[in-house]
Design brief:
The protein is an alpha/beta fold and about 375 residues long. α2 packs across α7, α3 runs parallel beside α4 and α5 crosses α6. The longest helix has 20 residues.
Amino acid sequence: MRFVAKTLYGLEKVLSEELISLGAANVQTANRAVLFEGDMSLLYRVNYCARTALSVLMPIDDFRIRSKDDLYKGGSKIEWDRFMDPDDTFSIVPVINSPHFGHTGYAGLILKDAIADSFRNKTGRRPSVDTTNPRILINLHISNDLVTISIDSSVVPLFKRGYRQEQSMAPLNEVLAAGIILLSGWKVSATLTDPMCGSGTIPIEAGLIACKIPPGKFRQFFGFQRWKDFNEDLFEKIKLECNSQIGLSPVKIFGSDISEQTIQYAKANVARAGLSDAISLEMSDFKNLRSIDDRGYVFLNPPYGQRIQPEEIDLLYSMIGTTLKHNFTGTTAWLITSNKESLKHVGLKPKEKHILFNGALECVLLKYEMYQGTKKQEKS
């Protein structure tokens, strides 16, 4: 069977490596997605274990069209009763980039009619549309004249882990946080510090990795659990197998923030994730912190400047550079921001640069190696 795992821009390679480690075959990266093959067991496992997937789609048909009518004809030929019954509810998510459709919603309406008419012709009854809580979520993708129709096996996006119920003003997407950590090459032999942790997303995702806790462990629901062929025994077996790997963190993980209220949010989320023993949180200003591990990792997601005056944000970024240079010698620092203008105030030369997206914001993820002494001394 073939599947498509959707992800955030810039995390395609990270996700492909995850999928291979989970047993996927014929893995191919695309734009914001990774294509792979496997069986139903793998579909369950990817939903439960993949840290950088947003959702997992199961394509059920693809065909080419020359007009709007061809979409209706193609949709009508699919054996929809394999996936749902007349009493079920469904919803369609259209993703359209085609000259045949000037309005995205119109393509979705055509497919909806094809599904309804298909059932009405066979049974005299038809499933209803429910955009709030559908039993089956259908993804309609049209690129020029190529139509791909898929069933969404996740429904609720996989970044909604379930542990984060308290959050600060601009929380980091959980998939993005996990992707940054995996992209960094952090190993659980090095301490990890997030000195601007907000509601705790980066420390928690690091804790899940360190303790081998599947990110799906806290979720109440996956879309495939409503499918006609859902194998509950198989899914329970996969969960038991994955959960049996959970252990104690071999490394110290630290989070801090200048706001006491934010730290309270983070502590509540950490406790909900079962990571209170793995993650240490405190209220502190970053400039007052010092590294306890000269081979540790520091992750920074500072304010981007949407709610702060330009001169204040420039001073903040200058402080970040100074503190890293003087207080975190020997560490590897990763900083993500959409405020590229203020980055020059950091005053450090990045070793690596990656383009990522935090919601609609294009961000840059930078790696800084805080050498002890000069690069020349480090190499010698």
